[in-house]
Amino acid sequence: MFYKLPYYMSRAYCKQGFLPTSFKMNRFHIFILVLFISFLSFGTALAQETNPLIPKKWGLEQRLLERQKYEDSWRYSGPDSNIDEARKRGLQQFLSIKRKNTSQQIQNTSAWEQVAGSQEGSVSGRPSGIAFDPRSNNTIYLATSGGGLWKTTDAGESWFSLSDTWSSYAMGDVEVDPKNPDIVYAGTGDLHDQPGDGMYKSTDAGLNWTHITNSLVVGRTSQIIIDPVNTNIVYCVTSQRVVKSTNGGDSWVSKLTIGNSPHMVIDPTNPNTLVVAGDGSIVRSTDGGETWTDDLASNIGSKGRITMALSKKDPSKLYASVGGTNGASRGLARSIDSGKTWTLSAPNTEYMGQQAWYDNACAASPASAKIAVVGGLDVWNTNDSGKTLVKKSEWTRPNSAGDFCHADIHVLEYSPSGDLFALTDGGIFMSKYNGASWTQKYNAKLSTLLFVGADAAADFSYVIGGCQDNGVNKADITDPYFKQVRGGDGGRTFVAQTGGSDIAYSTYIGATLFVSLTRGTTWQGGAGGTSDGNMIPLNSSLRTEGAPFYMFYDVCESEGSAIALCGNSRLYYSLDGCSTLDPISKSGTFNGGLRTVHIAKGDLSVVYAGTGGGYTYTTKDIGETWTRSTNKIGTAAGFTTDFNDACKVYAVTSGFGGKHFFRSADCGTTWESPDVNLPDLDTRTIARAPNGDLFIGHTYGVMRSIDNGVTWESLRDGLPLCDVRKLQVRGTSGEYLMAATYGRGIFRINIAELPRTIVNSVDASAPKNNKLKVTSLSPNPVTATGTLTLNYEVKDDGELRAEIYDEAGKQVRTFGVTYAISGIGKLEGAVSGLTSGAYFMVITANGEAAVQKFIIG
Asked: Is the peptide bond prior to 271 cis by the omega test (within 30 degrees of 0)?
């Protein structure tokens, strides 16, 4: 069945199949590529999935809906379908787990450290909302789709996270009270991705937050709008309605039910006048949302999603970026009577790329009522009140070009100083000239890439991972930034752990597999000499059977050319790096559909498969025979095995409800779940270290067990609450654990330096690797209404976090998070609200953790 050949003979060495990352195809190029692929009989499914901008009936809308469907298939795979409440319960369970031996842990132990950061210093993950402090042009708040809420006080030179203890890191919008800028509202839930958990409010410029409403009141947040006259009146526009608070967020009332991701503007001279676009209509209220008109823009005809802007120079002038029901751009509409009537001023200008429902933005210049900007794939502006639109950015240009702005523009907003900000799938872009030129400097220190999967070299010399909407990214361990090595939508990636880690694998969406023989620098040509780079053989039924949106596959750790790939119903296997690929199961072998696969680390003939039906399946002879488990465990999202015993296997299950960790000593025939304290959270990944330590990654972080899965501790030092999608144990002796997160980039921790026994030593002045030193924490004792000052010294620039734990080892507060510059620094914060007694300050930076005891008296 198989022919085991040296991998370098399996495909002639050639340049990367895709165009260089500095070149981006326009729609004509992509149309030609689709025809070319079709003539080569790649199959309709592949043609529909490998092109970022193809006709709507196949294109991005369907692709994003399929991605959402794929993600939900994991989130809702457990017994508990009320995942909002389940997630909150699971978070409380996770936070209640004690930090092991806090009062006795040796000083300056290992902590998580960020690997690289943004992509080439110019692209980050997708932001969803932005707000400006009117007191300073340098102070900006940023909501991101999967990385939480951030703040900068130096115009983007550094950022620090504000939401690392929240129950949701999927953000929708953020807004600052114009009369009291210390009051900030943040709404969770991203329109195009993950659900949220209501709204948070701060009264001290983001230092402390109160959860003021839940997801039942505020769903996926589109906008937060504050009445400029009475700032106690706050509106939240969600994916399906408009809700209103008249008491600063203490209570909320629904004022309008309207779908299609509605958008709203408020008249600053008469705040009772509201205009809302949604469900293909534009409606208006003159009594603060109590009553609404019918569609005021029916003369424009059929309409899809609409976004709007109101001119602050002349509030009677409104603009609307109108999408069609087919996803194409209808054009720019204008009202000169406060939204009562509308005219399609610049019709039929295609700037949304037939995806108006996804990237559609509009803003009006504060300098002139004649100037407005719209965005979709690119930014266009008008200087003549909407009569004409002129293109002002070019997403196909190199990142370094002055007119480059990343594609897929979701928000356009002017700062108080008149600068134009564009929030895109690639982060923040700013223009001082209404789009004439752009800068990406705000992305450099934002680590918000959404990794679907990642891996590292055997010696951890480099990491490589696939990101949603931002391709495949690679970084040497000393690099400050990732470099994009493949475009498109990045999926799961692996690095061969044998042969020097020169071979790397990556995927796009669907049935695709790409191979590099040069550590991800260049990529092989496609199967049969095709130029798309897809290595899956042309005659493989996997191409016609299709595969899940992000294809699940595994590479054997002891043989880097042995690969198992999941189709929709059958499992495929190759022993030669995908030169040949054969199904090793029949349709119907797996009850409930195939979801997960794992090749035993030390024996490539043993393969484990997880299914949606709850059973697991094992073959010990590469598919000649399969054995189904005697008991169900749920939807297995990840497996790992003992390198020396292929029949010792461990699994984690996704979704909510029930158990999430299982182990088997008989090759998966029977499973047991011995854990006593794992939280009920969506768990997607598991890893095992050579010393037997087990690690799992779930909705909010990473946990470790040193007793074969019976008891678990959280590994939180330096790692924010974030969605962990892939764990790998790497390093010359397996000393590092890598965590790829969906919204906060990639982290690693030296697990060899984690404490395994109680050490009676608390010496904050003794640095471990001279990277972090606590010089003082004073006053100590501190009064219950007092302020603590933490003085520290760090060797390298990077995020510094300080958290407070009680004597039982439970975290009670985040004291502070900052971007620390090399040298000395300090953090100050109040301890009000904490009762008298002993506490421990846990400080993490530069991959180290320090503990300092203090007393509240």
From this structure: no
Phi, psi of 594 (to 5 degrees): -80, 135
pLDDT of residue 761: 40
- Cis ω for the linkage preceding 127 (within 30 of 0): no
Distance CA 52, CA 62 (A): 11
Residues ≥6 apart with Cβ < 8 Å to 755: 100, 101, 105, 106, 109
Residue 643 C-alpha from the chain's centroid = 31
pLDDT digits (tens, 9 = 90+) for 39-96: 333 333 333 333 332 222 234 555 667 888 899 999 999 999 988 889 889 998 998 8
**Coil, strand, or helix at residue 113?**
strand
Q: Is 214 exposed, middle or buried (0-12, 13-18, 19+ CB in 10 A)?
A: middle
Instruction: Show the beta-strand stretches assigned E in 118-170.
Output: 127-132, 140-144, 148-152, 160-161
Q: How far is CA 419 from CA 133, 412, 434, 614, in A?
A: 14, 11, 8, 54
Using CA atoms, how far apart are residues 340 and 597, in angstroms rounded to an integer? 58
The radius of gyration computed from the CA coordinates of the chain, to the nearest angstrom, equals 27
Q: How far apart are CA 655 and CA 77, in angstroms?
A: 5
How far from each other are the two terminal CA atoms of the chain, in whole angstroms? 74
651: left (phi over 0), alpha (psi -120 to 50) or beta: beta
Please name which of 820, 819, 799, 801 lies closest in space to residue 811, comparing C-alpha atoms: 801
User: For residue 61, what pLDDT is reported?
Assistant: 54
Question: For residues 567-601, b (16+ Cβ closer than 10 Å) or e, as one string?
Answer: bebbbbbbbbbbbbbbbbbeeebbeeebbbbbbbb
The secondary structure element, H or E, covering residue 616 is strand 616-619
User: Which helix (DSSP H) or strand (DSSP E) does residue 185 occupy?
Assistant: strand 184-188
Q: Token pair for residue 537?
A: 């053989």
Q: What is the pLDDT averaged over residues 737-764?
A: 78
Give all strands of the β-sheet with 713-714 in edge-to-edge order.
Answer: 683-688, 694-698, 701-705, 713-714
Length of the chain: 857
Identify the DSSP state of 443.
G
Return the closest-CA partner of residue 107 out of 848, 854, 835: 848
Q: For every residue of 24-57, which 3-state class applies, written as one string?
A: CCCHHHHHHHHHHHHHCCCCHHHHHHCCCCCCCC
Q: What band does 30 get if pLDDT is binned at 50, 70 and 90?
A: very low
Q: How far, in Å, are 456, 496, 607, 750, 753 from residue 732 at the CA level?
A: 11, 14, 25, 12, 15
Q: Report yes or no: 845 and 794 within 8 Å, Cβ to Cβ.
A: yes
> Which band of pLDDT confidence, cut at 50, 70 and 90, is reported for residue 15?
very low
Strands (E), 204-269: 210-213, 221-226, 234-238, 241-245, 253-257, 263-266
Closest CA to 523 of 558, 554, 487: 487
Record the pTM.
Answer: 0.88
CB atoms within 10 A of CB 337: 11
In this structure, what DSSP letter does residue 450 have?
A: B
Q: What is the mean pLDDT of residues 2-24?
A: 30
CA torsion sign for 349, 351, 355, 360 is: negative
Give tens-digit pLDDT for 81-135: 988 889 889 998 998 887 665 444 546 788 999 999 999 999 999 999 999 999 9
Number of CB atoms found within 10 A of residue 801's CB: 26
Q: From CA 472, how far away is CA 450, in angstroms rounded?
A: 11
Six token digits for residue 10? 């399996």
Rounded Cα distance, 78 and 653, in Å: 8
Burial 493-530 (b: 16+ CB within 10 A, else e): bbbbbeeebbbbbbbbbbbbbbbbbebbeebbbbbeeb
